[in-house]
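note to self — DONT lose this again. spent like an hour looking for the file last time. sequence + predicted structure for the chain T wanted, 476 res
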Amino acid sequence: MATVLLLIPPFLKHTTGPLLGPAMLAGAAIQAGHSAEVIDLNARWICNDLGDASWVHGDFVGDHDRCDALLSHSQCRALTQLERGAAREGLAVNADALKRLRLDHATVDRLASRFAREQAPWMGRQLTRCRRPDVVGVSVLYAGQVLWALALTRFVRERWPGVPVIWGGAHVTALATEIACDARYGSAADGFVAGYAESTFVLLLDAIGRGAAWPEACFAAGSGRHPRAEGDDGHTLPSFQDIHLPPGARLTLPAQRSRGCAYGRCEFCTYPAIEGVSRTLAADSVHAVLTEALRRGAAISFKDSLMTPPLLREVAQIIAGRVRWSACTKLSPALDAAMLRELARGGCHTLEIGLETLDEGAQRLIDKRQSYALFVRTLDAAASAGIALVVNYMTGFPGVSEADEGRWLDAVRKELWSRPTLHAKLEHNRFELERLAPIATSPPRGLRVIAAWPWSSVLDWCWEASSAPRFLPVVA
């Protein structure tokens, strides 16, 4: 059988516990009789960088149980290293361009080669006990990991000549079309996999173990084809390995009850394209993660794009208050005080709400209409039930009045802060145009794409007011 080494490159602002994707791949490989080891270089990097820094917890469970200030400082230090490397190459590249990889192929390759040389001693220390595997997998979730991932590929090829490197993850899925059409991406990996890939991963390891041809879903750069991994929603049980936490941080284990988004209509969102159609998974994995969380004294964070009220109720019944857990959902009349109290009794501590915007023009643009009254009722219900809320909000939508957006943002802040018994956090982000978002693939009148970069999933755009739809306010 085959041996696989799964690597998670820096830099992700994630320190609460293991990532679910690599754990699912490792679990699938082990259940099929292969040998799989996960090395979380991201967690190792952050723990090493933070040292003995004082870790301050928030009032939340899951991904938001973190010290944002320390993580932001750590990310800045990581980006500063890259900026200095770029300067030594004679390139004036700022942190934002590095984080989003708004650079051409040649520049990325130059930076990756230098970074690989500079970080070779650290990478060598992390992998010193690893034996030569039959294949190396690299998980890439967003553009900010790409330079690290490229450096790892170069390091692996030098350390273990002839060992194939396979890239997967959400960022690979977002760029699958570009990768399949351009052989230059081949400097990153010998093969790429788009979509969820537990079954595909096992087929790949089976083929490597037999010396047979790889499955179709593992495609090469420039091949012209990028079939999506399918049939990967089975009964895989995750294998959590190489867990590193900063001093004082609390462990959270990831789980998933569904894949895809049950709403699936947001024009700005890439979840339907990345994750595929909405479907419910077998509950076996939830039970397995619960058993592990009880053994380790950990919380659980559900990674579903959108957990519907019926699934929230089902999970609360499964967990039955034995551990604390968090999940992501959207506003719904079903999430009233009675239901939220039921969820709280079942162990639900934190709900992340995809509010996005209360501006009417922006809601029409992104096709996500949610009322202010429903938002207020949800806050009251959460305060009554003792459930903490993380509210996601966005501004900077194309063609929408910045003044109107600002007034709604202030109203949301006021509502969150006006309830003394409510633990709430506002996650405010600026709109970015993602390659696979419906608003990018079929832009409305007035929105024009003006720039793209090979390793970035984000596009540059402008708003042409003269051709804009009449119902949208136009920025002065």
